[in-house]
Design a protein that fits this description.
Strand content: under 5%
Keywords: Cell membrane, Membrane, Transmembrane, Transmembrane helix
Number of helices: 4
Protein name: DUF1516 family protein
Largest sheet: none
Helix content: over 70%
Order of helices and strands: HHHH
Organism: Alkalicoccobacillus plakortidis
InterPro entries: UPF0344
Pfam families: DUF1516
Distance between the termini: 20 Å
Structural class: mainly alpha
Number of strands: 0
Length: 123
């Protein structure tokens, strides 16, 4: 793959992670405070960010020739997205039981960031 195309995928991947976390935080607070302001627009936005995240991650995974650490990072990223989705749905419906998913979210986010920045991995 061309280096410029890889760099584009990489920047899109990092940018969507940042936007995804910001939109997740905003949407969580809106649901928690029961403010119906632009919920449908933000829900659609977060789903588009999920899609961009998965597609750019798959392109990067292909570029790295499916190395084990990146496959693990991809699986944990999907777990992170799942935890975000469950937290948002339970918060919107005013149901309890999100503490376990917050733990999963925090743990998965920590692992994804550590793997993403190659912390503690000798290449």
């Amino acid at each position: 793959m061309n280096a410029q195309i890889f760099l584009l995928y990489y920047k899109v991947h990092i940018g969507t992670w940042l936007l995804l976390l910001i939109v997740f935080g905003i949407l969580f607070l809106l649901y928690k405070w029961k403010i119906p302001f632009a919920n449908r627009i933000l829900r659609t936005t977060i789903w588009l960010l999920y899609l961009a995240q998965i597609l750019s991650g798959a392109a990067i995974l292909y570029t790295y020739k499916f190395q084990a650490q990146y496959i693990i990072k991809g699986i944990i990223s999907l777990i992170l997205i799942y935890a975000m989705e469950v937290i948002l749905r339970k918060t919107k419906r005013n149901r309890s039981g999100t503490s376990a998913y917050w733990f999963i979210w925090f743990t998965a986010l920590s692992i994804v960031l550590l793997l993403g920045f190659n912390v503690g991995i000798n290449n």
